[in-house]
Amino acid sequence: MANVSVYNKEGAKTGSFDLNDAVFAVDVNEHLMHLAVVSQLANKRQGTQSALTRSEVSGGGRKPWRQKGTGHARQGSTRSPQWTGGGVVFAPKPRDYSKSMNKKEKAAAIKSALSSRVAEEKIFVMEDLDFAEIKTKPVKALLDALKLNKALVVTADVNNNLVLSARNLEGVRTVPSNAISVYDILKYENLVITKDAAEKIQEVYA
User: Fold this and answer.
1) Are 172 and 151 in contact (CB under 8 A)?
2) Which CATH superfamily is domain 2-45+100-205 in?
3) Mean pLDDT calculated for residue range 143-150
4) The pTM is what?
5) Which residue has the higher pLDDT, 1 or 85?
6) 23-41 burial, b if ≥16 CB within 10 A, otherwise e?
């Protein structure tokens, strides 16, 4: 098992913690991680964009001038794409961008992302992150002590004091353990996770 240091809220080492190899030391599958990121970003797209083609724009039924003898280029409708107010060529229409992955692929992608952070020594296990009040300063002080600029902070459950304290910090995102995603793990570079959150993740994915 991978053995990592445990830190307190002041950023000082207080012990060590064993991570389950079945979750935090698997072979990194970059292909599955790529699929997971593409899937998450695609599923966020609303797909509601829409524009009118020339057949849907009102008007334009009458030929603007006769075919020959005017000196103008021939035109059949004032709603052709080259006209102001005309239709759009290959107009975008509402569509579903969602992509799906099966459960085993999602789980393998999550484990690959977690394992990559352990291999790069970018995981920091905390005793706890329970703050008595909503203040940004102690969270900033903790990240400074750990020398982190960007971090995904994972707690076992929703921690409102932590969420509200960290929301003004650029490059920091807080999520409960049941909401982790490959995209967030890779985007925020460093993983700050509480011991009980790590245990919960191991229960689910081991």
Assistant:
1) yes
2) Ribosomal protein L4/L1 (3.40.1370.10)
3) 90
4) 0.80
5) 85
6) bbbbeebeebbebbbebbe
Residue type, 15: G
In whole angstroms, how far apart are CA 4 and each of 50, 103, 134, 154, 195?
51, 28, 29, 16, 11
**Rounded Cα–Cα distance for residues 95 and 106 (Å):** 24
Residues 75-122 pLDDT 10s: 999 999 999 999 999 999 999 999 999 999 999 999 999 999 999 999
Tokens in use for 48? 């509601």
Q: Where in the chain is the domain with CATH 3.40.1370.10?
A: 2-45+100-205
Which of 143, 196, 153 is closest to 174 using CA atoms? 153
Q: Which of 16, 187, 94, 20 is nearest to 175 (CA)?
A: 187
Write the CA distances from 197 to 21, 92, 173, integer angstroms.
16, 43, 15
3-class DSSP state of 94: coil
Averaged pLDDT score across all residues of the chain: 91
